[in-house]
């Protein structure tokens, strides 16, 4: 089968979060099963771009509304990522340092999708599946079905994976001219509420829709940022497929980002060394449990409650633990977390920013990872933590519900709490501190979680089965 993934992110080319990890791994595992998997994404100004060799495979000319533009598609020459990688360059629009966060993101990602459709329609053959990810690429199923220029692609099956329905790519109807000429009887397939809604359009027009965990799909029936009724209506074509992790990139025995490697048999020593390194670097006390948070400092992740939960934990337990935070997001949360550094007694630190290498070292050196998410479609942090013998302390929601069982329950190994409140988070932290005192129990859990299998090998077959069900 020939599968084309279209995405805004792909590790190691450009990553802002879990979407990048998934699109950097899933195609590789599809390829290993003998399929032709390709990734098409925007050409940002990334280190990866300058460090690799490219060949131009296509040059085209198309338009976004009345603005005509040239675009170029380049292909990575060696295939070293384990799949074919294509970047679309639209001069001045996509070639920027960051993936998101510009005022013209609507124009950037719409033009990107127009260019991708314009390129694919020029091929002599048709791919078996076009798999789009999140709202940045979710207009493509509409383009194929209803835009006159791409009518020859109407039979190409499309799959939309929703990694996060909080963001939908809304744009006003004044921007409807950005959509290449289409059958206006189908205007309703673009909108939801009072705006053009690319994610909703993708849900309506894709042949199949997946979410990144089964529980998230279930939760979306009552909480999907306004899309509940639409998802209920389209339920027949929706399914939840749990993400996997790339066990080659994320392997404590070989991880390229730190030196003190370890396996399930050497986890105690390996963790101790990495923890000491972290504690030295961030002025923390290695004798106390190290509780960490890695991620976007936004409401979705419950990060707004973290400062208070940390202060309360210190207050009620007599400072029996360390905290180390890595992330960036809401300025108010960032500055409160920064301000708390002044009160640290070698038991609190924060690194505001994005640092891939540091994240790997934290998974390796931490005792616990905290995820008090309000919404967590899948969550990869807890899966990486498990593989590195780090115990997840999570809110019982979405993918966290599907992957973490409380150690108080049969077969359990993590810590779960139900509500996103300072009280529940603090209680979870207290339970982690208690577990840390039970050295033998903790050792047993670490050995157990490192052997759990959340690799892509399992999930990739679910995707292939789904593709087979819609293939011509
Ligand atoms: P989301 O995609 O919603 O942010 P996920 O749990 O799916 O959450 O994936 C987050 C990914 O981004 C993980 O690979 C995590 O290690 C990484 N990550 C998040 N924030 C940072 C950061 N500040 N520095 C380095 N890596 C980060
Ligand atoms: C999104 C979700 C996260 C998920 C990731 C990869 O960013 O917020 O829960 O793990 O996509 O699918």
Strand content: 15-25%
Distance between the termini: 11 Å
Overall shape: it is globular
Distinct helical segment count: 16
Structural class: alpha/beta
State the total count of DSSP E strands: 17
Topology:
Elements lengths: L1 E5 L11 H15 L3 E7 L4 H5 L2 E11 L2 E10 L7 E6 L15 H17 L7 E5 L6 H7 L11 E5 L28 E2 L2 E2 L1 H8 L2 E4 L2 H6 L8 H6 L4 E3 L26 H15 L8 E8 L8 H12 L4 E8 L1 H9 L8 E5 L3 H10 L2 E4 L9 H7 L3 E5 L2 H6 L11 E3 L4 H16 L1 H12 L5 H15 L2
Parallel strand pairs: 1-2, 1-6, 2-5, 6-7, 7-10, 10-11, 12-13, 12-15, 13-14, 15-16, 16-17
Antiparallel strand pairs: 3-4, 4-5, 8-9
Helix pairs in contact: 1-16, 4-5, 8-11, 9-14
Bound molecules: adenosine-5'-diphosphate and alpha-D-glucopyranose.
How does this model look, in words?
This protein has two domains: 257 residues, Glycogen Phosphorylase B (Rossmann fold, 3-Layer(aba) Sandwich), CATH 3.40.50; 187 residues, Glycogen Phosphorylase B (Rossmann fold). The strands form three sheets. A nine-stranded mixed β-sheet has the order 3-4-5-2-1-6-7-10-11, sandwiched between helices. A six-stranded parallel β-sheet has the order 14-13-12-15-16-17. A two-stranded antiparallel ribbon has the order 8-9. It is built from 16 helices and 17 strands. The chain is α/β, with parallel strands linked by helices and 472 residues long. The structure holds adenosine-5'-diphosphate and alpha-D-glucopyranose. Adenosine-5'-diphosphate binds next to α1, β12, β13 and α11.
């Amino acid at each position: 089968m020939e599968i084309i993934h279209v995405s805004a992110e792909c590790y190691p080319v450009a990553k802002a979060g879990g979407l990048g990890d998934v699109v950097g791994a899933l195609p590789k595992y599809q390829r290993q099963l003998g399929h032709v998997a390709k990734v098409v994404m925007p050409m940002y100004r990334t280190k990866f771009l300058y460090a690799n060799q490219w060949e131009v495979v296509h040059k085209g000319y198309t338009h976004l509304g009345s603005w005509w533009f040239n675009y170029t598609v380049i292909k990575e020459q060696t295939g070293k990522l384990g799949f074919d990688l294509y970047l679309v360059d639209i001069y001045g629009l996509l070639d920027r340092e960051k993936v998101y966060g510009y005022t013209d993101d609507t124009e950037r990602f719409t033009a990107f999708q127009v260019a991708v459709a314009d390129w694919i329609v020029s091929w002599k053959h048709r791919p078996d599946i076009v798999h789009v990810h999140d709202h940045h690429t979710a207009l493509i199923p509409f383009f194929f079905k209803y835009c006159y220029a791409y009518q020859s692609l109407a039979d190409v099956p499309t799959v939309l994976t929703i990694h996060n329905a909080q963001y939908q790519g809304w744009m006003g109807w004044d921007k409807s001219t950005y959509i290449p000429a289409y059958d206006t009887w189908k205007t309703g397939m673009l909108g939801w509420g009072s705006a053009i809604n690319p994610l909703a359009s993708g849900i309506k027009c894709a042949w199949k829709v997946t979410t990144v965990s089964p529980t998230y799909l279930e939760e979306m029936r009552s909480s999907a940022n306004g899309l509940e009724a639409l998802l209920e209506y389209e339920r027949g074509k929706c399914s939840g497929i749990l993400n996997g992790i790339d066990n080659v990139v994320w392997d404590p025995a070989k991880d390229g980002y730190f030196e003190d490697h370890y396996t399930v048999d050497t986890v105690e020593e390996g963790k101790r060394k990495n923890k000491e390194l972290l504690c030295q670097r961030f002025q923390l006390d290695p004798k106390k449990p190290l509780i960490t948070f890695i991620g976007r400092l936004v409401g979705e992740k419950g990060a707004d409650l973290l400062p208070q939960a940390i202060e309360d934990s210190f207050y009620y337990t007599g400072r029996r633990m360390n905290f180390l935070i890595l992330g960036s997001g809401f300025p108010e949360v960032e500055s409160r977390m920064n301000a708390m550094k002044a009160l640290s007694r070698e038991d609190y630190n924060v690194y505001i920013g994005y640092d891939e290498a540091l994240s790997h070292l934290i998974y390796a050196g931490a005792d616990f990872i905290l995820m008090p998410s309000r919404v967590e479609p899948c969550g990869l942090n807890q899966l990486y933590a498990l593989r590195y013998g780090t115990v997840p302390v999570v809110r019982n929601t979405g993918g966290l519900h599907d992957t973490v069982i409380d150690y108080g329950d049969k077969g359990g190994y993590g810590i779960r709490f139900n509500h996103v409140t300072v009280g529940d988070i603090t209680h979870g932290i207290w339970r982690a501190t208690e577990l840390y005192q039970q050295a033998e129990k903790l050792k047993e859990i670490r050995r157990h979680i490192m052997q759990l299998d959340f690799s892509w090998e399992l999930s990739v077959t679910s995707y292939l089965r789904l593709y087979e069900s819609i293939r011509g």
